[in-house]
């Protein structure tokens, strides 16, 4: 399971170093794609396959399902980690996420999100403003 939050800088080749504790879960290949909130999702290849099964089960007709498929598949990149645990963030995804030179890498269970620090802070403020954690906790009976 991916847990925790880390800040990293992009190098001159647009690579980030993934946290050492995340690397074994990715193995040698991963899939990068646009996330739903202006972030990049990084999935181990096997987990992305599970996500793809769920996406493929969505109805073929309907704007929301079609838009989600386009977002995920149309922005997906196969990637690999080098020996130092670095991965290149494609320009298209960096632009989508507003990433320039710094990133926040956060584990969210089965996958990792990569954010610009500005977007990360906005997302965290929005969560608190909506009272979202409390509602979810209540739904889960926590």
Q: Could you explain the architecture of this structure?
A:
With 142 residues, the chain is of the alpha+beta class. The strands form two sheets. A six-stranded antiparallel sheet has the order 1-7-8-4-3-5. Strand 3 (29-34) and strand 4 (40-44) form a beta hairpin. The two termini are 20 Å apart. The protein has helices at residues 23-26, 45-56, 63-74, 91-97, 117-130, 132-140, and strands at 5-9, 15-17, 29-34, 40-44, 77-80, 86-88, 102-107, 112-115. Helices cover 41% and strands 25% of the residues. The protein has a single domain, classed as Transcriptional regulator MraZ domain (Chemotaxis protein chec). The chain is built from six helices and eight strands.
Task: Tell me, rounded to a whole number, the average pLDDT.
Answer: 92
CATH class assignment: Alpha Beta
Low-confidence stretches: none
What percentage of residues falls in helices of 4 or more residues? 40-55%
Distance between the termini: 20 Å
Strand order of the largest sheet: 1-7-8-4-3-5
Number of strands: 8
Number of helices: 6
CATH topology type:
Chemotaxis protein chec
- How many structural domains? 1
Structural class by SSE content: alpha+beta
CATH superfamily name? Transcriptional regulator MraZ domain
Specify the CATH architecture.
Answer: 3-Layer(aba) Sandwich
Q: Which descriptor suits the 3D outline?
A: globular
């Amino acid at each position: 399971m991916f847990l925790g939050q880390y800040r990293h800088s992009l190098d001159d080749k647009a690579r980030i170093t993934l946290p050492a504790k995340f690397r074994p879960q990715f193995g040698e290949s991963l899939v990068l794609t646009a996330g739903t909130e202006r972030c990049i999702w990084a999935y181990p290849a096997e987990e992305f396959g599970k996500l793809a099964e769920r996406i493929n089960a969505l109805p073929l007709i309907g704007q929301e399902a079609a838009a989600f498929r386009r977002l995920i598949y149309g922005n997906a990149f196969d990637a690999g980690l080098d020996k130092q645990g670095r991965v290149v963030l494609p320009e298209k995804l960096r632009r989508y996420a507003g990433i320039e030179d710094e990133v926040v890498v956060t584990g969210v269970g089965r996958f990792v999100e990569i954010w610009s620090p500005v977007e990360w802070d906005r997302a965290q403020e929005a969560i608190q403003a909506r009272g979202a954690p409390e509602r979810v906790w209540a739904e889960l009976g926590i």
